Amino acid sequence: MQVGTEGAAGAPLDEVFRKDCPGRPVFEQVTGRWGLLILVALSEGALRFAQLRDRVGRISEKMLAQNLRTLVRNGLTERTVEPTVPPRVTYALTPLGRDLVARLRPLVEWSAEHDAEIAAAQRRHDDGVAAPMP
Fold first, then answer.
1. How confident is the prediction along the chain (134 residues), in pLDDT tens digits per residue?
2. Can you give the chain as a three-state secondary structure string?
């Protein structure tokens, strides 16, 4: 990436390197352990909390709740509470979230296409076969 290059909206890409860039918390969440998986799971349609927890797998309820709060705050997901007893809460992508997932999906597809190669590289590394780091 060149310094001063323009992004799609005409804003300099250098802005993302500023510590006060509003997008940085989004980058951290999306590239964190759960954000990407939650967003991609919601790309299949609105889900209730338990459905989302089961779809993502191995995420605690506490971590799911924290991530969902942040995704809602960042405008990527919306939380809908239906006035039933008990209340029915669903989560869905917003238009902004759908736009982001459309850009993330190629990364997820790349990972799926290369999972065997990644696993083989990890085994080689763990077995001490990988080239030493400089």
1. 333 455 555 567 888 888 899 888 888 889 888 999 999 999 999 999 999 999 999 999 999 999 999 999 999 999 999 999 999 999 999 999 999 999 999 999 999 999 999 999 999 999 986 566 66
2. CCCCCECCCCCEHHHHHCCCCCCHHHHHHHCCCCHHHHHHHHCCCCEEHHHHHHHHCCCCHHHHHHHHHHHHHCCCEEEEEECCCCCEEEEEECHHHHHHHHHHHHHHHHHHHCHHHHHHHHHHHHCCCCCCCC
